[in-house]
Amino acid sequence: MNEGKLTREPQAPAEDAALLPPVDVIEDASGITLYADLPGVPKDRLHVQVEADTLTLSGEMAVAVPQGMAATHAEVNLPRFRRTFTLSKELDPEKLSAELKNGVLKLRIGKAAHAQPRKVEIKVG
Amino acid sequence: MDFSLFPRDVFADLDRLQRQMQQAFEFSPSIRGFARGGFPALNVGGTPESVEIYAYVPGVDPADIEVSLERGVLTISGERKSGLEGVGAKDSVHIAERFAGKFRRVVTLSDDLDPEAVEARCKDGLLHISIKRKAAAQPRRISIH
User: Fold this and answer.
1) How far is A24 from chain B (nearest CA, A)?
2) Looking at the partner chain, which of A17, A32, A39 has a beta carbon nearest the beta carbon of B58?
């Protein structure tokens, strides 16, 4: 493993600058599904964290680079991803499941039972 | 107005914009381009023995990626399914940023590469293509008599 050659650090490296992974967020009646593109991130380097109402996704790429390689063109120029979301109250962090496949994280957050939609009957008076 | 449950991080967006602008000034043009922002994103590097191409193809089954090398032109193509498939009429899509659809990226290679010595591996949504240089093109020390 010889990291850091593939991706160049920015001129003024911020302490932990990270790429922002593109996401899709879909809400249905029972919860929210989030898909995040995290190419090159293995399962053991992916962190999904919920703290209070903040959801943080972070991942570090594991890229095997041949010895002595010089990068000539880099569109992905940082080796890590990070993105933070604010969760709303009706989402239950206990009902969270995550699945990583081919570099895409699928995250499912269920809604608390009391927040499930109820049909309100309208009485005709 | 955007009332999404997950409001976007404005500072992260600004940061990304700044990075993109910075990248735009480091552009090295080629006739087939190295258009940035395309899918998949590419990183290219070289060693004295080989050229290494990294294509970031998250969410694409390795079996659905086609890599071809023809007359010094490497083509990576395929199709990526949308994550929004199966969204019901009552569901709401709050953020849709991920690429979906057919993709094709082309890289012009230098002519010292051996089209027979190509190796491609795909792991965690990262496709790594390694092409060896022709033995004759590798640096040699020339002795002086």
Assistant:
1) 4
2) A39
Find the CB nearest B84 among A24, A74, A84.
A24
pTM score? 0.74
Cβ contact A23–B54 (<8 Å): no
Domains of chain B: 29-135 (2.60.40.790)
Topology at the third CATH level for domain A23-114: Immunoglobulin-like (2.60.40)
pLDDT tens digits, residue range B132-141? 998 876 777 8
Instruction: Evaluate whether ipTM surpasses 0.90.
Output: no
State pLDDT tens for residues B8-47: 566 667 777 776 665 555 444 445 444 446 889 999 999 9
Q: Assign B17 to helix, strand or coil.
A: helix
How far lies B68's CA from each of A40, A80, B48, B73, B125, in Å? 22, 29, 23, 8, 18
